[in-house]
Design brief:
- The chain is of the alpha+beta class.
- The chain has three helices and two strands.
- Strands 1-2 form a two-stranded antiparallel sheet.
- Strand 1 and strand 2 form a beta hairpin.
Amino acid sequence: MQRGGEQGVTVEDSMSMVHISSGMRNTPSPALRSECAILAGMARATLPESATPWEYYVEDYDRIRDTWPRR
């Protein structure tokens, strides 16, 4: 769950098919952060001059997928 609402991550199966996964369990602690939030935090800490809108991406994972060209 992020500011933009419930999020799903994309996963690729053994047949190279990409699917959305929302998980099946509740977060065990509100202190846990998503992989996207962790990576965005690392990017902000190591690339303070970056023009990439890290928080914008973390708020809604579709924004990450929409940014990169599809094949």
